[in-house]
Amino acid sequence: MKKYVLLILSPDEKGLIYKVTSIIFKRGLNIDKNDEYVDSEENRFFMRAEFSGETDPLALLAEIRASLPERAEVKLEEIRPKDIVILCTKENHCLGDLLLRYDSGELEANIKAVVSNYDHLKPLSEKFEIPFYGISHEGISRQEHEQRMLECLAALKPDYLVLAKYMRILSPEFVHHYERQIINIHHSFLPAFVGANPYKQAHERGVKIIGATAHFVNDNLDEGPIIAQDIIKIDHSYTWRDMQKAGRDVEKVVLARALNLALHDRIFVHGNKTVIF
Amino acid sequence: MKKYVLLILSPDEKGLIYKVTSIIFKRGLNIDKNDEYVDSEENRFFMRAEFSGETDPLALLAEIRASLPERAEVKLEEIRPKDIVILCTKENHCLGDLLLRYDSGELEANIKAVVSNYDHLKPLSEKFEIPFYGISHEGISRQEHEQRMLECLAALKPDYLVLAKYMRILSPEFVHHYERQIINIHHSFLPAFVGANPYKQAHERGVKIIGATAHFVNDNLDEGPIIAQDIIKIDHSYTWRDMQKAGRDVEKVVLARALNLALHDRIFVHGNKTVIF
Amino acid sequence: MKKYVLLILSPDEKGLIYKVTSIIFKRGLNIDKNDEYVDSEENRFFMRAEFSGETDPLALLAEIRASLPERAEVKLEEIRPKDIVILCTKENHCLGDLLLRYDSGELEANIKAVVSNYDHLKPLSEKFEIPFYGISHEGISRQEHEQRMLECLAALKPDYLVLAKYMRILSPEFVHHYERQIINIHHSFLPAFVGANPYKQAHERGVKIIGATAHFVNDNLDEGPIIAQDIIKIDHSYTWRDMQKAGRDVEKVVLARALNLALHDRIFVHGNKTVIF
Amino acid sequence: MKKYVLLILSPDEKGLIYKVTSIIFKRGLNIDKNDEYVDSEENRFFMRAEFSGETDPLALLAEIRASLPERAEVKLEEIRPKDIVILCTKENHCLGDLLLRYDSGELEANIKAVVSNYDHLKPLSEKFEIPFYGISHEGISRQEHEQRMLECLAALKPDYLVLAKYMRILSPEFVHHYERQIINIHHSFLPAFVGANPYKQAHERGVKIIGATAHFVNDNLDEGPIIAQDIIKIDHSYTWRDMQKAGRDVEKVVLARALNLALHDRIFVHGNKTVIF
């Protein structure tokens, strides 16, 4: 029996749940999981349903669309492991953590490749038999470098790009190729400490807590929709290097948590915010 | 326009959401908030909906019941502030915290009275103009003491009894009068350290984290369904008195959080567990 | 037997602990608690000792000073409950929480008075028999208002001013009267969301965690040395009003924790940071 | 210049800090870090100092010992990376996490070998070029199996044995060979849910928080001195398998944190508790 996931983001109206569940019920499908949320201030309705059974998904999608307000966004997909590409630079903790989850079967995704602007993590990727593409940024323009990356990615067709401590800023042109498909881990509790060296900034400010933020990448550095955040407590005895070391544990866990939500189609993006079921 | 809350706990079947939402839609009512959860292992369906509009609640309830499996439990109520009675002994932090929330209008409930086996907290209750009933347990049997408590409570007709550090064990006979209506705060991270003096037990065991647990009271001491838990980190420098002092902050916050969930009909009890929307 | 607390902040040198403990030992005093920390980057030595016994504190202080580098700052005090004044505006949760701790004897301080620019919290203060001074800011200049506050405070001679949700900005002139003696609770995880309406800012940014920060007040709004921070997790379903409500629980606990550290002379301020023992 | 760490656990007396620091000072050594703690209830003094300089460590140790009460325990060591052996069974997350930290140079230890009762994790160990010894427990007695383990370990001479989800109970005989040298990760917030299948137990009890505990192994299962604990929040929607999956993230981080403390000689064990600097 096939399994599907349905995502609806629509202007709110009376009867939406009834209309959608009635279509599903009348086709004899079984709803395994269902969530709704209404943002009253924005008058938005969010619905996510997992269901199973035999159906013609295109016809079903058309019928659901027809029952909803005109400006509703609807997505209906068979549930399957997504394809991802991991981008990284030199630090091994986020990449390694994802590779271990992949190795144990916990990560429900296909890692198509690792792409990096340095070769430092080639041995690690190859230990887990993941193709590694080193695309150096040295001696070429940002534009040229991104062009080479895009060519490489075009062949891999990933559902998501995962920036696992990829330490270069992506241009809006690059980002537009993968709108809402790029997940980054930022090593601070955003919006505190945007930009470079957040641990140094945090050390200078004398904070008692540091954090990490996983977010979708959009045109504005560190300002994309936040998916997950977590923190750890520190004290005055931490140098910024200690913060960096301690921070790695929260970075890798937050990135994995955010990716897992994306892989299961549990994230809606609306404006600059996420709704997560 | 009136507001209602509907709670359904039912054996799971295909089409339950559709059936219930169709009844609500056809009566022209507006669903403001809707949550479902299916416990697949136990084959249980949980649904909570808030809706508004003009309707005959008894007729609506009857129609919903008729559409559901025979063994479904259904509750439909107009949304209103509940009546509570707070039981306490000598410590002021949980009682005081609830009184402050009441005073600022944050606690959406009527505190009908404070009942205690000592008079220590009478002045505090009276500062906030809440009737205080001191019912001493001294010189009388447990049975006799509980009898006096029950008489006092019978006149007050509370929706919930809140044990805000009430340091006596209630007999099953007493509990049966207020099944699923008594909320207790236990000063440990249950099921660790059941029984008396949990902070002393925690100190002896050398734990690095202490916690608090709010739960419904049932026949077995500290074994009722858990509603909310939280923790704070400690270290070797804490004596058990320090733990007790630090623990108060988590106790009062966890109790208030659990009570707030109960006041808004957001808790289902199934077996010895809670499902919370 | 008298109890003393000694605080030393000094350029670091070899033998400082030895020199200080030797003076204390030779006078037959007993060290009950001792902490040191060296900030190697800044070459600063921090030491805090509690000791007990009979001694001439002025002579002891002079001897310790003489043994230390010239630019060392030394403070030696008999341990005693400090005097505090609480400033507030309209919200009751931080003030009420401190009053309850005072009422139970947990707060080891004398609350000399509550001062507010509104009269809303007069009844609450009076419930706990604390003098309340309403000093309205309406119809007068900031300068004039602060002048009236300073006159009121001059008579009360507080060790610390506690801003328990005091919603006005204090001028540098005011702050200079109480350098490192004013503790504020800011309702965000600083340095995120400085300035007005942090919960609204947080809501707009779509964060998944909110926090509170207790800090000393200096000339720059929300930029003083941080004493304590804590957070709670939220999700998309929180309106900014919900955040505000949830945030109160973390605000009051963080403020009380920071005040407690100050009352026990456990905080050093160095530059814009704190070292806490 | 050489670096040393000094650990003292002694009955408390007046002047201990003075005596020890005076010996260090008079030899011209430089204290880089110093911590003390007095457990007043038990009348125990704990001191840990890191210092640097040229000295004869045996003579220094003798002089310090002579200055202390007879029953004092003193340890003085040159600071060096410790040797560890990791024991595991089938789950890869704790082992993999340690290997990644090792690979990046973050783990300041030599991993001498991985030892397991199954061969499942042989490929993972070998990816990182760590010798793997599979010592099956099948078809032989517990005694015989442990004998083979001990023979293997005797040749490796580890400072610490790290039980990275090693799913067999060690006999007291085995433990006595490595008193206070075996660190285990237990997948619950001890003392809740001792013994087998803690996540199943936690699921059954309906807790709202799960945790992990790293502890030294002693004769009594899950009752050794606790080194580190942490938790994550869950809700009713977690099956025990979901708890297990979520729990892995906290297990690996807590184990790494505890190991790091041991590797830097930051843990004292006194009775069944730890004091950690």
From TrEMBL, chains A, B, C, D:
UniProt cross-references to CDD domains, sorted A to Z: ACT_F4HF-DF
Keywords assigned by UniProt, alphabetized: Hydrolase, One-carbon metabolism, Purine biosynthesis
Any Pfam family the entry gives: Formyl_trans_N
SUPFAM superfamilies per record: ACT-like, Formyltransferase
UniProt-annotated catalytic positions: 222
This protein's pathway: Purine metabolism; IMP biosynthesis via de novo pathway; formate from 10-formyl-5,6,7,8-tetrahydrofolate: step 1/1
EC number(s) given by UniProt: 3.5.1.10
Coiled-coil annotated residue ranges, if any: none
Matching Gene3D superfamilies: 3.30.70.260, Formyl transferase, N-terminal domain
Molecular function via GO: formyltetrahydrofolate deformylase activity
ACT domain span: 5-82
Top-level taxonomic group: Bacteria
Catalytic reaction annotation: (6R)-10-formyltetrahydrofolate + H2O = (6S)-5,6,7,8-tetrahydrofolate + formate + H(+)
Entry-linked InterPro entries: ACT-like_dom_sf (IPR045865), ACT_dom (IPR002912), Formyl_transf_N (IPR002376), Formyl_transf_N_sf (IPR036477), PurU (IPR004810), PurU_ACT (IPR044074)
One GO term of the biological process aspect: one-carbon metabolic process
Cited function: Catalyzes the hydrolysis of 10-formyltetrahydrofolate (formyl-FH4) to formate and tetrahydrofolate (FH4).
Sequence similarity: Belongs to the PurU family.
Record-given protein name: Formyltetrahydrofolate deformylase
Native organism: Wolinella succinogenes (strain ATCC 29543 / DSM 1740 / CCUG 13145 / JCM 31913 / LMG 7466 / NCTC 11488 / FDC 602W) (Vibrio succinogenes)
Gene coding for it: PURU
